[in-house]
Amino acid sequence: MSVDVMEYDLLMSSLAKKSDADDAVSMSRLLAVLVLTVAVTVAELVLAQVTHSITLLVLVHQNIYNVITLVVSCVTRVKGERSLKNTFGWRRMEVVGSIASLVFLFSLCFATMIEALQTVFHTDHLDTMHHPEWIMLLVGGNLAVWLVSFFVIGGYSYNQSKAVRQDKPNRRELETVSACSSFMKKTRVADVTRDLCGCVFTFLTCSLVYYQVVTEDYSAYLDPIISMIYIVFLIWTCVPLVKASCLILLQTIPGNVEVSLLKKFLLQKFPGILALHEFHTWTFTPGTLVLTGHIMYQNEQVYTEIHGQVETFFNSQGFSQVTIQPEFPPSGDPSEEDISTCTLKCKSEECGERTCCKDQETKCLH
Predict the structure, then answer these.
(1) Secondary element (H or E) of residue 348
(2) Residues 254-259: what's their mean pLDDT?
(3) What's this model's pTM, rounded to 2 decimal places?
(4) What φ, ψ does residue 295 adopt, rounded to 5°?
(5) DSSP 3-state assignment of 322?
(6) Distance between CA atoms of 326 and 57, rounded to whole angstroms?
(7) Cα–Cα distances in Å, from 130 out to 45, 53, 220, 229?
(8) b/e for 147-181, b at 16 or more Cβ within 10 A?
(9) Confidence of residue 8 (pLDDT cuts 50, 70, 90)
């Protein structure tokens, strides 16, 4: 792969990172959506207790989860400023809040699943759903609130996924998308489906009961069975968010960063670089990438000339936190062994065993 092709691929990645960074939602918009969501959630919770609708109760759980994530987003923006106590601010709170709120949602869904199973096997002892027409009216209000959230913050799921996920860019989309259609391009069908699945399942249940599609003997089973299907579908759609949150907290390599391509580009673009050691990158938050590494330069003069360009390149690729340890070969004509060996590594045997890259071969040009 030529340097120009690699440079183009890396440039496309950096454009996607910068585009994501410009999508921050203002506090006023978040608060407006939060107030509307809390209002409709309280109304649905009261009606779920009155009508004994399990499907509506699951929808309430999903809205409670939406409220928690919105609160976390608001707190993150308030506490996001750096201080001497917390250098990075509270910017990772959205990632921690995401996985914590998902665990809370799973707990609520588990309890509701047990209730649905009890209703299926003990319909003669428990109250079945009634007043489906009231529920359908409130579902319409829930849909209206979602439309507001969609046009204000992109939808609940879009806002939640943006806090933990950064997709690998598509070159064709980056080349052809226009400013007027960028909003729709960023809107994922999966996010819209996840947001609206509760309204669909709840409205389906109410319609079947209200229009008496099945006989009265089987009508009592509709609500618990559909609610269980809703719970399974909701948890299945949450799995990608759980995975993305865990990958960030475990400091794995970001999915939109190709380390091998980055190394090849550096070695070919900057001939003054002889080798790379202890090269690591991870995601602090989506859009905030961290990079550390040892770079061996030919000599001190070359380091002075190109080190600024190397740091500028890393910044252009979205690495906002870059720590580079410069190294120099022991002689003017270094051997293969000199280049492949880290000159600043710890001399103790105990340190050698703890080095993460002790078994990794160093890539170089010579």
Answers:
(1) none
(2) 76
(3) 0.78
(4) -120, 125
(5) strand
(6) 59
(7) 15, 7, 10, 20
(8) eebbebbbbbbbbbbbbbbbeebeeeeeeeeeeee
(9) very low
Report CA-CA distances (Å) from 109 to 106, 155, 202, 206.
5, 22, 15, 20
Token code pair at residue 191: 């996010």
355: tokens are 């080095």
Instruction: Indicate the pairing of strand 319-327 with strand 273-285.
Output: unpaired
Please state, in angstroms and rounded to a whole number, the distance separating the CA atoms of residues 225 and 117.
8
Which two structure tokens, joined as six digits, stand for 113?
A: 């699943």
Sign of CA dihedral 335, 337, 339, 342: negative
In this prediction, residue 93 has a pLDDT band, given cuts at 50, 70 and 90, of confident
How many whole angstroms separate alpha carbon 201 and alpha carbon 143?
13
pLDDT above 70: residue 167: no
Q: Is the dihedral of CA 305, 338, 258, 98 positive or negative?
A: negative
Q: Is 154 helix (H, G, I), strand (E, B) or coil?
A: coil
Distance CA 69, CA 208 (A): 33
Identity of the highest mean pLDDT range in 135-144, 253-262, 312-321: 135-144
Give the whole-angstrom CA distance, residue 318 versus residue 257: 10
DSSP H or E run through 249: helix 216-249
Do 188 and 159 meet the contact criterion of CB atoms below 8 Å apart? no
**Mean pLDDT within 186-193:** 81
SS3 content of the chain, % helix, strand, coil (to 5): 65, 10, 25
Q: How far apart are CA 263 and CA 199, in angstroms?
A: 48
Tell me the C-alpha distance between 18 and 167, whole Å. 13
Q: How many CB atoms lie within 10 A of CB 102?
A: 21
Spatial separation of the C-alpha atoms in residues 204 and 200, rounded to whole Å: 6
Q: Give residue 256's Cα distance to chain centre.
A: 12
